[in-house]
Design a protein that fits this description.
The chain is mostly helical and 310 residues long. The chain has eleven helices and two strands; from the N terminus they run H-H-H-E-H-H-H-H-H-H-H-E-H. It has a single domain (2-309), classed as Up-down Bundle (A middle domain of Talin 1). It has helices at 2-35, 40-65, 70-94, 108-122, 130-148, 164-195, 199-211, 213-224, 228-246, 260-280, 288-309, and strands at residues 97-99, 285-287. It has a two-stranded antiparallel sheet with strand order 1-2. Helix 2 packs across helix 9 (228-246) and helix 3 packs parallel to helix 10 (260-280). It is globular. The protein starts with a helix and ends with a helix.
């Protein structure tokens, strides 16, 4: 029992360290980017979106290196479901409705749907090759190209000066992310061994929820401040990054394992949630009732995982 408590403590501490370091990484990178004359919009859809997905990427790479390759797709699918069903569901419930200021069907929803469908077909044969990883990286380049083409550089007077401390924090936070991810995967392996639970179960729940905490925090804060459309953009951008980047990059560190129940249950659920989000956002509004529906899907999702673990 003491060993199990210790492993849970290590897992919790590593997730906290991941989130703290990711936040410092984003802050430092944003300041450095502005000092170089990169527009805030470009920083937002690249550095910030990548930063909130950094915990997923770090834990996925650590999983492959640690001999738990099935965690990667479980982490991606679990995080994407959590972002839509829990993050957006809670955001819509917190406010009366999420009123979208932009037309998501111009770029975001087509790419979100495309990334979900592409992932489904790429892993449908229970394999994920190097070539398929390159295809995913091509997808993120295409997404960024379309998203960033209208970006404008900030005026010289609006550019902050980046000090040596910003560069130091950038390097140190990246190092902390790497070490914390290794600890997280190590503790997951030990916990699953002690409780005789498959590591992918923990990846679908604890890891997915833990690494999605940046999206949860940002989205709920935005919703409470009347900027709920940011919550949707944050979740959409993170999901596209998860599917294209978090799935692809770990493949270069070793082969990935695609569990059968991911293909039969959780990946189809992710695709269904993605389609549902597109339908809900068609009128540029996600109501509180629709948010409750999303939360019901998340409760069912957790129920399926608990049932499979028993």
């Amino acid at each position: 029992m003491d060993s199990l408590i210790a492993q849970f403590g290590i897992f919790a501490a590593s997730i906290v360290a991941l989130l703290w370091a990711s936040d410092r990484f984003v802050e430092s990178a944003e300041r450095i980017g502005l000092s170089w004359g990169i527009s805030p919009f470009i920083i937002g859809v690249t550095i910030v979106a990548f930063g909130t997905s950094l915990p997923e990427l770090a834990t996925s790479i650590a999983a492959v290196l640690g001999g738990e390759p099935e965690i990667v797709v479980s982490n991606v699918v679990g995080s994407n479901i959590t972002n839509i069903a829990l993050v957006l569901g809670l955001s819509a419930v917190v406010v009366k409705s999420i009123d979208l200021e932009i037309n998501l069907w111009y770029i975001d929803i087509p790419f979100l749907w495309g990334s979900a469908f592409l992932l489904y077909f790429l892993v449908s044969d229970a394999r994920f090759s190097i070539f398929e990883a390159v295809v995913c990286l091509g997808g993120i380049v295409l997404f960024l190209t379309y998203s960033l083409k209208d970006g404008e550089k900030p005026a010289a007077e609006d550019r902050p000066s980046a000090s040596w401390k910003d560069y130091l924090f950038l390097l140190l936070s990246a190092a902390v992310v790497s070490f914390a991810a290794s600890w997280a995967i190590s503790s997951i392996t030990n916990i699953s061994g002690i409780l005789n639970i498959a590591p992918k179960i923990i990846a679908l729940t604890a890891v997915a929820l833990g690494t999605s905490l940046p999206e949860v925090a940002v989205s709920l804060s935005a919703a409470r401040k009347g900027r709920a459309s940011i919550a949707v953009g944050n979740a959409l951008g993170s999901n596209v990054f998860n599917t294209f980047v978090v799935m692809a990059i770990p493949r270069f560190f070793g082969p990935l394992e695609i569990p059968a129940d991911i293909l039969s249950t959780y990946l189809p659920l992710m695709v269904a949630m993605t389609i549902l989000l597109g339908i809900m956002s068609n009128n540029r509004q996600i109501s509180r009732m629709e948010g409750m529906v999303l939360l019901l899907f998340y409760i069912w999702y957790l129920g399926q995982i608990i049932e499979s673990a028993l």
